[in-house]
What we know:
The chain is α+β, with helices and mostly antiparallel strands and 282 residues long. The chain is built from 11 helices and 5 strands; from the N terminus they run αααααααββββαααβα. Helix 2 crosses helix 3 (48-59) and helix 8 (152-173) runs antiparallel to helix 9. The model has no long low-confidence stretch (mean pLDDT 88).
Amino acid sequence: xxxxxxxxxxxxxARFNEIVTILLRNDAWGLVRSMTxxxxxxxxxxxxxxxxxxxxxxxxxxxxxIGQLLATRPDLVPDRYVTELKTLYDKTTPSPYDxxxxxxxxxxxxxxxxxxxxxxxxxIASASIGQVHRATLKDGTKVAVKVQHxxxxxxxxxxxxxxxxxxxxxxxxxxxxxxWQPREHxxxxxxMLERELDYTVEMRNTQRVEHNFRHHPEVHIxxxxxxLCTKRLLVMEFIEGVKFTRVDVPEMANVDKKKIxxxxxxxxxxxxxxxxxxxxxx
Length: 282
């Protein structure tokens, strides 16, 4: 198997200095305070949510993942922050196409042209751990190809070492922060990321969900291609769709939204109470 060229390893001190510099330059403590304050009044522009999102992006993948987690917690984070942080799900800066080619070559032992009939160089979505490209298999099947960013696992391990120290300092210095249970949330995030960094886990879970809904034609789970899936590469059936939140797009004009809501609600309940396996990214 060809070797995948990894970024030069960074020292803990160098990365710690980088993180602290970015936090200080962007007045991180002021951004945290703004989350617990009401929005500006009198038409004054509220830039804090955008500044927080940009700061997390500048800090890198581990912090982007924290932002994604915060976007799922409207009980902790004001709505205006949730809306902005949701853009971290699939609108981060993608890796260069050369790196994508290198990952596929490393994982499958073949070049892109040997595996796919066509492969779109531009990612249709990019997040903290990987990015997604449209492609076509040799038999004409349209697929979505999820490719992990090079060096992401090593970078995240280093960041979590540093974050443990920072979180411990914050808890000791600012007693009010304990209300958010930062250490517990950080450990939960670390365990979650450990599984997310292995795409074969996602592949197997998706296959299990597909099997569980095999007698429910109203629920369609993308087909996986296990022979093309590895720890850093995921290939699945490509399905055109519209996000639930995009009710304003033309494709949703003639859709029975109540019926869709009922299908989704029943599917979620079935997963939680019957299957005991919950797909968190419908």
